[in-house]
Known about the structure:
The structure holds 2 protein chains of 2 kinds.
Chain A: H1 2-14, E1 22-34, E2 39-51, E3 55-59, H2 66-74, E4 81-90, E5 96-98, H3 107-112, E6 117-120, H4 124-127, H5 134-145, H6 150-163, H7 169-172, H8 182-194, E7 200-204, H9 212-229, E8 232-237, H10 240-246, E9 249-254, E10 257-263, H11 264-269, H12 274-284, E11 305-320, E12 326-341, E13 345-349, H13 356-363, E14 371-377, E15 383-385, H14 391-394, E16 401-404, H15 418-429, H16 434-447, H17 464-476, E17 482-486, H18 494-511, E18 514-519, H19 522-528, E19 531-536, E20 539-545, H20 546-551, H21 556-563
Parallel strand pairs in A: 3-8, 3-9, 6-7, 7-8, 13-18, 13-19, 16-17, 17-18
Antiparallel strand pairs in A: 1-2, 1-4, 4-5, 9-10, 11-12, 11-14, 14-15, 19-20
Chain B: H1 31-40, H2 43-60, H3 62-65, E1 86-90, E2 96-109, E3 116-130, E4 133-139, E5 143-147, E6 150-152, H4 171-207, H5 209-224, H6 227-236, H7 244-275, H8 278-285, H9 290-326, H10 338-344, H11 348-353, H12 359-381
Antiparallel strand pairs in B: 1-2, 2-3, 3-6, 4-5
Amino acid sequence: MQLIRMAQMIEVTTMPETHPKKVLEVRDLSIGFSMQDRVVEVVKKISFDVNQGEILCVVGESGSGKSVTARALMRIARPGKILNGSIRLYDDAGRCVDITELDEQSEDMRAVRGDRIGMVFQEPMSSLSPVHTIGEQIIETILLHRNMTAGKARQEAIEALRRVQIPDPETAIDKYSFELSGGMRQRAMIAMALSCEPEILIADEPTTALDVTTQAEILRLIKRLQSELGMSVIFITHDMGVVAEVADRVAVMYHGEITEIGTVEQIFHKPAAKYTRHLIGASSRFTITGDQDRGGTLPRDGAKKMLEVRNLNLTFRKSTGILFRKVTEFNALKDVSFSLAEGENLGIVGESGSGKTTLVRALVGLLKTDSGTAMYQSDDGREFDLLQPNALRNAGLNREIRMVFQDPFSSLNPRMTVEQVIAEPLVMERKHSRSDIRKRVANLLDRVGLPSNVLSRYPHAFSGGQRQRISIARALAVNPRMIIADEATSALDGSIRSQILDLLFDLQSELGLSYMFVGHDLGVVRYFCDRIAVMHNGSLVEIGDAASVCQRPERDYTKQLIGAVPGTDPSNRRLILT
Amino acid sequence: MLKSPKPQQQPNSDDGFEAPTPLTTQGTETQFQLIWRAFKAHKLAMISLAVLSLLYLVAIFAEFLAPNDPYAVNARYTYAPPQELHFIDHDETGGWSIRPHVLGYKVEVDPIALRRTYVMDESTKYYIHFLPETHEVNMWGLFPTKRHLFDVDGRREVLFLLGTDRLGRDVLSRLIYGARVTLSIGLAGILLSLVLGVIIGGVSGFYGGWIDNLIQRVIEFIRSIPPIPLWMGFSAALPRDWTPLQNYFVITVILSLVGWTELARVVRSRFLSLKSEDYIAAAKLDGVSDSRIIVRHMLPAFTSHIIATATLAIPGMILAESSLSFIGLGLQSPVISWGVLLQEGQNLRALADAPWLLWPGAAIVITILAMNFLGDGMRDAADPYGSND
C-alpha cells in the first residue's frame, strides 16, 4: 500500500508542473521575544508559499530569524511568540488548517507535528535521546501518529532506516545515537522525521555540523527522498553553496525580513536585492576551480624557509582503572612533515578528527609531542626547535608566532574588557607605559576595523565577526611574523568570513606576515592559501600548490574531499546531478 | 621582489551587512553589574537579602537595640510570658492617643499547686520611650553608653516583649545578642573554609595527577565521617579552662575543618573546566605566567560561583554551631548564641509553660531559609554569560 502511495506521488511530481499546488501559505508572520520591558520583534511580517514537491531554501546569516521562523511553523518557537499573521497548511483535498490558531499543546497541533510536518535539526547528537535506541525513538513516533501494532511499527522503522541508506538497518535499529557517526545520526534523524511520511520536511541547517563529504551525502539523500516521496522541503541554511546545490526556490532573509524570494536561477543569476548580491559575491569567491593566485601579497620568489617540520608524531594516551591500569592509545599525528616559507600562506585541510588542530596546537606548545622536530628560523636568524618544552616562552618566540582560535566566543575572556584582552601580551612584556599600551591598543583596533571607542566594552557586546577581529588584534599586538589561524573563520557567516580574510590579506601586505590557516572548507582555504596540505587520520596525505591540489589531486582522499565541495552555480551543480 | 599586490577586493565599506550584535546593552557593564541585574530579577533572593541585612544590622548594633541587659537576672519575673505591645492608649475619660506601651505583670500563686502564673495588669501601663538612657553597656567593647533604641522608663517598670527565661532574663535581648555570635560564626567559619577550599581545590584542579588523586581521596575520607561524633571528639578535647573567646575560635576552626571539602570540590571542578577554555590557551600563548593565569584569568571567572557556594554553605555552619551548642558541646553559657539559648528549651517544663523559649529556633529557621534563597539567587545569577533561559 505504501508502495502504491509512493508511486502515486512520483506520478504526481513527474506531471508537468503548470500550476504548482500550494501546501503551505505563510502570510504576514511576525514573531517576537519578550524581554524584561518590551517585545523584540525578530521576524517581521514575512510571507511566502511552499509548493508541493519543491525545495525552498531559506538563506540568511545568523540572527536573521530563519530558525525561529522554522520553529514557528511547528509551533515550537518558545520562548518566542507569534505576534500576528497566519500559517495555512493545505491538504490534498484543498482543505486548510491555520497553524497559528492551534494551541501549542493541543491534540490537533501534535497531529500536525510529525504527521504532516517533519523536522530535522542542526545538531543530531543533542536532538536524539541518548538513553533510547534510535529504533525506539522512531517506533514511538510511528505509534503516536499511526494506528499499528508494535511489531508492524518496527518493520516500518527498519524500512525508514533503509530508506535513508543506513547500512544493515536490522542491526542499526537497536543502536544508541552515540554509537553512530555524525552523518549516520543525521540520517537516523531524517528517518524519524520521515517515518510518518509528512507532506513537508523542515531541515534546519541539517549539514552545518557535518564534514564536507558527509554533507554531500546528506544533501544527495534529502534531494532523492524529496523527489521519491514528492514532499516539500523547507531547507534552512546560511551556506550559499548548499543553496545552489539543492534549492528549487530561495527566500533570502535579512534582519527578520524576506528581502527577496524567487527561483534559484533568478536569485543566483539575476539577484534583485543588494543583500542577495552581497551574499552571492561573498560565496562565489570561495570557488575551488580556476588557476588564479590567491588575493593579497604573494610571497617573494625563493623566500627562505621559516618553519621546517619533520616527522612529527603525537599520541594521546588515556589510562583508565585504578588497580589495573589500562592505557588506550590514539595516534593523533603520524610522521607529519612540511615546511613554511616567509610570506607564505599554508592551508591545512581535513575532516574533523584528522589531526589538523592537534598539529597546530603541538607547534605552539599547547600539546606535548612524542617525536619529531619543528625548526623555526627566528627574525634574527637564530634557529629553535618549537617542540622543546616551553620553547615559545623561553626563547621569547611567543611574540613572533601568534594564534587565532576558532571559537570567537570562548577565545576571549568574558571578564576582561577589549582593552585588557588586547593589551595582555604587551603588559607581559613589562616595558611599556600604560599610556603607550592604550595608544597601541587603539591603533590595533583601528587596524582591524573596529572603532576605538569600544576599548572599555566586554566581549559579550560583540558579534562573532567583531570578536574575531579582536582576536586578530590581540595576535598583532606584539608584531608577529607568523599567525596560526585555527579554523579562524569557520564559525562566521559567509560575508563576514570574506571580510575577515580580506583583513588578514591586508595585514599580510602591510606587516609581511606568514599564515598557517587550518580549515575544513576547501573553498576558503583555496581562496586564502598558496599551498594546501591535506590531512587524513593523522597523516598528511598530500601537499602542494593550492591550484594544483584542487585541480589535479593525486590522492583518492583529496579527490573525495574536492568532489564534496558544493558549487556556486545552480545551473552547474557539482553534487546533485539531475 | 614583491609581486604587485592585487587591488583590494571589497574593502570593509560593505560592513552594513554585519550580523546584528547579540546584546542590547552598551557592552561596558562589568561582570558585577551583569550579575547584579540578573540577581535583581530574583524576587525571593532580594527579599532574603533584605532580611539578612536586617539580621546582620541587628547583630552589629546589639548593645544599642537590646532593651535589657541580657545577663540581668530578675528573680521576680522567672518564665514571664511575652508582653503584648499596645499602640493606642485609652485614658479614663474615654479619649485616646497613640502611645506605645505594655501592661505590667500581676503574679498569682495557685494555692494548691503553688504555681506562679502571670496575668496582665490592666491598670499598670509602662510607656515605651525612644532613645532613653537606661542601663549602661559597653558598645562594641569600646565605649560605654546608656542610650538604647527603646525601653521603658524607671526602675520598677519592665519590658519583656518575648518573655523571660528560667532566671528572668529577657529573651528578646538575649536573642539579639545571640545573633552576634551565631551569625558571625557562620561567616568566620566559611571564610576559613573558603581559604582552605580555594587553595586545596585549586592545587587539585590546576595540577591534577597524583596530587589531585590524593586530595580527592582525603576529601572523601573526611566526608565519610559522621559529623556529630567528629565534632564531639574535637570538643571533648578542648581544655575546660579556656575563655569563651578561645572556645569560639576553636569551634569555628572545627566547623571549617569539615566545611572546606565541599568548596574544594567546587573550586576543583571550575579549574578543570576552565583549563580547557581557549582563552586560557590564548593567555598561555601571550606569555602569561601560571600564577597570573590563575589570579587574573581563572579566579575572576568563578568568584561568583564560589560566593554562591559559600553562601549556601553558611546555613550548614550555623546549624552545626546550634546543634553543637544544643547538645552542650559547643559554646557554653555565659556566651550567648542561638544554640545556647535553645538549650534552655531542652526540658519539658519549658516547652509546656514557656514556649517562647523556642524563639531562637524560629530565628535560626528564618536565617537559614534566607541564606538558602540568597544563595540560590546568587547561583542563578553567577554566570551572566550563560544561557539566557
